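check these tokens.
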Amino acid sequence: MKAQTMDQLKGHNRLADALADVGARYRAANPESLARWERAGAVMPGGNTRTVLHYDPFPVTVVKGEGTYLHDMDGHRYRDFLGEYSAGLYGHSNAIIEAALKEAIEGGMALGAPNRWEAPLAELVCARFPSIDMVRFTNSGTEANLMALGAARAFTKRDIVMVFEGAYHGGVLTFAHGASPVNVPFRTVIAAFNDSEGALALIEENRDRLAAVLIEPMMGAGGCLPADRAFLQGLREATTRQGILLIFDEVMTSRSAAGGLQQRLGVTPDMTTLGKYLGGGASFGAFGGRRDIMALFDPTSPHALPHAGTFNNNAMSMAAGYAGLSQVFTPEAADQLYLSGEAFRERLNALAASKGAALSFTGCGSIIGLHTHARGAAERAEDEASLQDRKRLLHLEMMLRGFAFAQRGYLSLNLAMSEDDLDRFAHALDEVLDQHADLLTG
């Protein structure tokens, strides 16, 4: 036991030394970003206005994006493997998207009226997604989920929502370790993801009070963990039987096919929420579903549910979204990107296995999650902090080599990427695994 404890201590010390070294190199390489971050801390908590964009020791400040590249204020160029958490599907400065945005801006941005792009965009969305007969737009995926849950509660006249441990449905619908203190006060029951027996039992127990089951067909922020098809099909059958609405949060996974991951899996929910890339890079969200549910929002009805939002149909999002779906992200492009992501994830896992590295890659199509693991019998008891430190080490080493992704281990590919970009990422990861073999191999 003492020998095991000493081995663990030595391992922690080596990891701490490696983190200190890469942190020093990172600071030395990014003095302008560091100074900007420190100044920003005087007026924004943590120098930040979007929590997920912070990482240790500080984030670089990006001044330009072009194609699949990001440029920071210290003069470095990165291949963008973050892809704005899947919103950056089109890469940066796509010519078709740029032209649509320019046309929208020149025509006036805040019109206070229906515009010529929103109905054609709605037609495309309804034609693509199996579950969406009618759709309404919002400003974000967070708003889309809030409105979908509100619709479900009104439609069913029930008040409880089932969600899943580890899920993220927006800044006020977060369930990483139970409910967040800043969550909206919906009454929720929380089930284990991919646990059919437990989830179905919880549905049965709350069948008379459950308005909706809200689920990501691949848990994004929770580690890029795909739901089993049989699990989703079981939820579909149970909710149908009990008159509960099944809502798929496809804010991230809608890029998995022309009609989203629901189309690829062959499981159709009652409602779907969307966001991210569908605004062409501008702010966007949408919720849609069965015609009888969405009819609740028809303002020509005397008892219509209200749905406000100054920028729901803002000209930039509508124009860029329509151009993107109609001209760039075709069904063929969606399939090609999905297959490219599947092959890339398999390649990264094969590389990790060949090196004996204690890490793995999960995900669905072009969205990928990096996971670190305990490194052998002598270190099975290592804590979560050590596993996260290994992610920090990998992330900063890859940043210094010119590859940007989320420090928590989130990657997403974009349409501007080439095979050369994927090759270079794999080569850089190979280098890092060799450099830190004593810390990252099993």
